[in-house]
Amino acid sequence: MELNLVRPLLFFDIESTGLNIPTDGIIELSFVKVMPGGEVKVKTWKIKPWDYQKHCVIPINPQASEVNGVKDEDLVDCPKFIEVLPEVAVWLENSDLAGFNSQKFDLPLLAEEIERVRAYCQLRAQKPESREKAQEMLACIEKIDLHACRMVDVQNIFHHFEPRNLKAAYRFYCGGKDFENAHTAEADTLATMEVLKGQLDRYKEPSAYQQEVLRNDVEALSRIGARSRTVDFAGRLILGENGEPVISFGKHKGKTAREVWENEPSYFAWIDKEALNRPATADELQDLASRFNTGKLF
Asked: Which of 265, 263, 241 is nearest to 254 (CA)?
C-alpha cells in the first residue's frame, strides 16, 4: 500500500560511534524522502565524528564497529557533521520523520549533534575572524525545528500490533491459542514453562532465516540475552575489563565507580538510603538541576 501523504515523510537512520547519546557521534546518516505523489529521494552521508570542544575525532567503540562494520580509518577523509548540516537542514525542511526505534535513539542523537554545532558556532561568533561563518551556520540551525516534525516510529507500530508479552508468546509457540486464567501466578508460570518447551521445539534445527540452534541445556539458555557482567540487577554498574565496577549510564558512563566516588561523591546520593528518607538539601537539588537542565533539545 502506498503512503498517503500531505507533506514529505523523511525516513532516516543513524550509525554512530556508540550508544551513549550525550558523548557519541554520528558516523553515517541516511535519508529516504517520500514525497506526496510517490517520488522517492535518497541521500546518505559518511561523517567524521568530531568533538568540537576538544577539537579531535570521537573514536568508534569497538562493539559499535562489530555491528556497523565501520572503523576509524574509514572516516578519515569524510566531512564533519558541521560541514553537511546545511544540506541536512534542507532535507529536513517541511518534512515529517519516520524510523525504527528512532524516538529513543536516532532522533535524540540527531538533535544532540545539532546542539553541539550550535554551541560551537556560538563561541566562534564571538571572534571577529570567524563571526560571519558562525552566524551563517546559526541562521541555518534556527530553521531546524525537530519538535515541529511528526515522528512515525515503525518499531512502536510493530510492538503495538505484535505485543511481546506472555500471552503473545503462548499464541506463537503453543499452537495459537490463549491460555486460561492469564495473570494469575500459577497459570502464568505454567504458560512460561510451555513457551520454553515450544521455543526448544521451534529452534532445534537451523532454517533459511534462523541459522542458530537453541541448545536444550540450562547453561546455554541462561546465556541468551544475559548481562552476566552486571554488578546490580538493574545493570547500572557493570564489571570493567579489570573486574572493577564501572558506571554504565549518565554523564559518568564508562568511569569506574571508585573514580566517581573519589571526585564527586554526591553523585551517589540517589542510592543512599538516608538520602531517600529525608528531604533533599539545596546543594543536592542544584546538583540534580545541573545534570538535567542542559538546555538541549533532548
From this structure: 241
- Three-state DSSP state, 298: coil
Query: Checking phi first, is residue 160 left (phi over 0); if not, alpha (psi -120 to 50) or beta?
Result: alpha
Residues 6+ positions from 196 with CB-CB distance below 8 Å: 221
Beta carbons of 179 and 170 less than 8 angstroms apart: yes
In the chain, how long is the greatest CA-to-CA distance? Answer: 74
Secondary structure letter of residue 134 according to DSSP: H
Please state, in angstroms and rounded to a whole number, the distance separating the CA atoms of residues 248 and 233.
12
Residue 255 pLDDT = 86
Could you tell me the end-to-end alpha-carbon distance of the chain, in angstroms, rounded to an integer? 33
Neighbouring-strand partners of residue 259: none
Cell numbers found for residue 170: 503462548
Residues of the chain under the 70 pLDDT cut: 225-230, 232-235, 269-298
C-alpha closest to that of 11 among 85, 113, 100, 104:
100
Put the strands of the sheet holding 96-99 in their side by side order.
40-46, 26-34, 9-16, 96-99, 151-153
In 3D space, the residue among 49, 164, 45, 29 whose CA is nearest the CA of residue 97 turns out to be 29
Residues in the chain: 298
Bridge partners of 96? Answer: 9
Percent of the chain with pLDDT over 70: 87
> Which residue is listed with cell 569524510?
78
Q: Which residues contact 220 (CB under 8 A, 6 or more apart)?
A: 214
